[in-house]
Amino acid sequence: AQKITQTQPGMFVQEKEAVTLDCTYDTSDQSYGLFWYKQPSSGEMIFLIYQGSYDEQNATEGRYSLNFQKARKSANLVISASQLGDSAMYFCAMREANTGNQFYFGTGTSLTVIP
Amino acid sequence: GAVVSQHPSWVICKSGTSVKIECRSLDFQATTMFWYRQFPKQSLMLMATSNEGSKATYEQGVEKDKFLINHASLTLSTLTVTSAHPEDSSFYICSARVRTGPPYEQYFGPGTRLTVT
Questions:
Q1: Chain A neighbours among B 2-31 (CB < 8 Å)?
Q2: How far is B108 from chain A (nearest CA, A)?
């Protein structure tokens, strides 16, 4: 079974609008971490935001927020006030405490911001 | 934030030759470094995990004799693609884990694009 599922291969959003990128995960661990990374065309993986499984509040970092719904095992990324520079691939990832080193990535969502 | 560098950023080599890629953590010590491979429009696939001073742990299906990993210090890991073939052409990304404290963030290098002709 897929550990991380991103069901949106491609998304479009109008500049200055908000967009939600979906991510669901599968784990039986109680302790795990969820991450979002941005990968522009240059290839570099840029860390955006982190949510721990025990964190009660949704993580926020500037224009990025993570909508964490533990019971549904979803960790959607919300980007507010989209900018042209937000156009990139976005990857959701998870690391389980039990597996330590293994970092599971989703298949990614390609976001295009339209002016 | 923590910075991870990779060198070279891109390399073209002939089939049968070997290529070494360096990964350095510039402003932190990394007990663990990871090597990923990414094909166009696909996700990152973990190839191996290396801990400083010990042998790398390879993921299933990754040939350890072909992809040699050395983690000689807390700031440097190298990946050598031996006897490269065109099917080894890919984007290789390293990642380093910050040494102290949870959530043990991983920071990624900018990647190395390898083309084997």
A1: none
A2: 6
